[in-house]
Structures are given as C-alpha cells and as structure tokens.
Amino acid sequence: MLRAGIVGLPNVGKSTLFNALTAQTAALAANYPFATIEPNVGIVPVPDERLEPLAKLVKTEKIIPATVEFLDIAGLVRGASKGEGLGNQFLANIRETDTVIQVVRCFEDESVIHVEGAVDPRRDIETIQIELALSDLATAERRREKAQKGAKAGDKTARAEIGVLDRLLRVLEKGQSARTAELSNEELALARNFFLLTMKPTIYAANVDEEALLNPHANHGVQAVYEIAESEAAECVVICAQLEAELVALPSAERLDYLSTLGVSTSGVDQLIRSAYHLLGLMSFLTAGEKEARAWTIAQGTRAQQAAGVIHSDIERGFIRAEVVSYDDLMSAGSYAAAREKGLLRLEGKDYIMREGDVVHFRFAV
Predict the structure, then answer these.
(1) What is the pLDDT of residues 114-144, one digit of tens each?
(2) How far is C-alpha 328 from the chain's CA centre?
(3) In this predicted structure, what is the pLDDT of residue 90?
(4) Integer angstrom CA distances of residue 295 from 115, 286, 339, 349
(5) To 10 degrees, the CA torsion angle through 260, 265, 268, 271?
(6) Rounded to whole angstroms, how far apart are CA atoms 315 and 308?
(7) DSSP per-residue codes, 134-162
C-alpha cells in the first residue's frame, strides 16, 4: 500500500487536512505547536468512478477501492536535524513513507499562530528543505565513509556509490534536495539505496482560504509554491484544508455541488491522491465478479504475472493466462459474454504489460 506522509511547520493545516482525507476528526487540530506527537494514521480510498458501474454490471454490492495510507506527522521547526522540537521523531517518521505531502500555509489568519511570526511560503519550504537536507548530509557522509572502505577493498559497486554520493553531497551542502541532483537512471538506482529523505517524491499542498480557492494564481504565496515545485520537478496542488474538512459532513453528491458553486470541479483531497499516484508512477487494474468489484494498485510497466501476485502469491506462482478486457470495452459490451463474442476479451501471457483500467481474471493452477 502507498504510504504518504503529511508534513510541514506547526499550524499550517496538516491535521485539518488529515481529518479531511480520512473523513473523520480523530487528529487533534489545536492552535499550538506539536499538537500532533505520534503520527495519526488513516487509510483512505483512492477515488475511482469506475467501480460502481462495474459492480452493477457483474451484479455485486461489494466494492473495494485501492487505498492510500496517510500519516499526519508532527510539525517540524528550525533545528529539527539537531533534535530540536520533535525533530528526531519527525525525521524517523518521514523515512517510513513512500511520498511526502508538504502542507504550506498560504492564508492569513491572525487567530492562528505562525511559528515564524508571519506567513511566508517560500521561507517555510526552505526551512523544512534545509532541515531535511542537513539530515541527509549526515547520512550521505556516513555512507561515503563506508563506500570508501569498500572501494579500497576492490568493490566496484562501492566505487560507483562514491561518485553518486559526491554529486549528492554537493547539492545537499547547499541546503537543496537530493532529488534535484542530475543523475542517470543507473545512478538513481544506486541513490535510492541511501534512503535519503530529500530523494522522496514530494507534493506541495498550498493551503489557502476559501476566497483564494476561487482564483489561486492571484495568491502570491501559491505562485511561490508553484515556482518551487516546478524547479524541483515536484507537484503542487491547491487546497483549502478547512473547507475540505467541513465538506466531510456532506454526502458525496452535495460536496460536488457545493464545490461547483465555487467554480471548482474536483476536491483538493482527490487531487492530492491522484497526484501521489502520478508522481510515483502507479496505476490501477480492476477485478470484478459475484463476490466483489475491486481496484488493485501496481506500478506502471508491471507484467501480468507480477500483477497476479498483488492479489495472492499463489496466483502468481501458478499463473497460466490472464483474461483481459479494457474497462471501456467491457462497459460498452454490457457483459463479459458480449465482450468475448465481440473479440474484446483477450488471453494474455505472463509478459503482458498491464494497462490502466484493465479488467482482469487470472487463470492459475497450484
């Protein structure tokens, strides 16, 4: 399951966003630093409008969407890399995630304290970036010392690691993210083994008030966040965490109706989840039968036999063939039988590259 960590300075709206994401109010959204100490964890369904029609087609009432695990991590302050505030715990929690969602405050509200005294999105991002880079700098220096010993012993991989680490160290010493270093695909593969915090794919969530949601590009803070995201090949999503948390109390249809009155076509929460999928190169395939209609998460480029293993290791081990039909073709045909008669349902082997929206039945024997 994809794990996404929600991070940021104290009082930027992390716990409010978490409440909206998980459609509950378990996280303590208090107006003081470190209201969140242990990370709150929530399992959130991935929006997928295909599942309900698919369930109706196969006459099942059980729908199981793909899910994302969100962690609401304690707010970070200057000096976190040296243990200030809850720094050590904050950094350890980030290390356990696949992607980072950094909430950046882009709204003014005198009743909500800002830990730095004033709202400045560019400075806030820089504060977190520097702390993470300092932590990574220490990690990379230790890894380089280890690689040097291996290189002296004739280890070719260790020699290659030194070259990559030297490039990363030059970036980290400037307080920049490791993901901004120019590395080849082979070098990137080595770099991922260092488990650096600033190598993690990042989504910036520019948190605005409801008024700014109507025209976010007029907000100077949002503009700054977009510029930083673009410079790092990261993603940026504009949200109003407070509005999203309030919408949780409404039925799904009413939420969309209310958003449309604001000139917004989709929920910021849905955008965040989709951005996480896109950033990590993930996709979904579907299964549907009498028991359930279900979405499964895989990486883009996954082969059929590997995809079978996501359902169960026995299916991967005993893989014979995959019966595959695209969601659009199946819905257009109206049934599996009709899709088969029209030649839309195909038999694919273990090396078939799965596509987004494939509806699959795996044949296997163990």
Answers:
(1) 777 788 999 999 988 888 888 899 899 999 9
(2) 26
(3) 61
(4) 41, 5, 20, 21
(5) 160
(6) 6
(7) HHHHHHHHHHHHHHHHHHHTT-HHHHHHH
Residue 252 burial (C-beta neighbours within 10 Å; 0-12, 13-18, 19+): exposed
Number of other residues whose CB lies within 10 A of the CB of residue 31:
11
Dihedral of the CA atoms 325, 327, 332, 333 (nearest 10)? 30
> CA 285 to CA 42: how far, in whole Å?
23
235, two tokens: 């993603």
Sign of CA dihedral 286, 238, 269, 39: positive
Q: Quote the CA–CA distance of 16 and 241 in Å, as a whole number.
A: 6
Nearest-angstrom CA–CA distance, 273 and 275? 5
Which amino acid is located at 238 in the chain? V
Give the tokens for residue 346: 């195909």
Q: How far apart (Å, rounded) are the C-alpha atoms in residues 83 and 181?
A: 26
pLDDT recorded at residue 219? 92
Q: Residues 6 or more apart from 162 whose CB is under 8 A from it?
A: 144, 147, 148, 151
Structural tokens at position 261? 């009155």
Q: Report helix, strand or coil for 20.
A: helix
Which DSSP letter does residue 232 get? T
Token pair in block for residue 345: 């349902």
Which of 101, 58, 30, 131 lies closest to 280 in space, CA to CA? 101
Please say if the pLDDT value at position 86 is more than 80: no
Binning the chain into helix, strand and coil, the percentages to the nearest 5 are 45, 20, 35
Pairing of strands 346-348, 358-364: unpaired
Q: How confident is the model at residue 31 (pLDDT cuts 50, 70, 90)?
A: very low
